[in-house]
Amino acid sequence: MQLVEKHIIKSGHRFLKEIDALCFASKNLYNAANYLIRTHWIWGWGYLGYNKCARLMQSHEAYKALPAKVSQQVLMV
To answer: Rounded distance, CA 70 to CA 55, Å?
Structure first.
């Protein structure tokens, strides 16, 4: 069973800039959602589930920087 798939993108690849920008946007979305979930927990409002988190994050610039399918998959993580 293969659990991880690794892709090595060399510095001369023609899609390197686009891939780097998408990875950066994905990281920003993940961190923003993680912060939102963490602050809800710390303030005593309980755990923030995926559905409510996705609704709150749709207006965030990091969510809009990626295609909708990709943003939803990042939030599911």
So the answer is: 15
Q: Which amino acid is at 21?
A: A
Determine, yes or no, domain membership for 64. Answer: yes
Number of domains in the chain: 1
Assess if residue 30 is contained within a domain.
yes
Within a domain: 58: yes
* Domain encompassing residue 44: 25-76
Euclidean distance between the first and final Cα of the chain, in Å? 21
The Cα–Cα gap between 58 and 56 comes to: 6
pTM (predicted TM-score): 0.83
For residues 30 and 77, is the Cβ–Cβ distance under 8 A? yes
Q: Going from the first residue of the chain to its last (77 residues), give the mean pLDDT of each consecutive group of 10, the final group possibly shorter.
A: 86 92 95 95 90 93 93 92
Token look-up 């798939």 returns 5
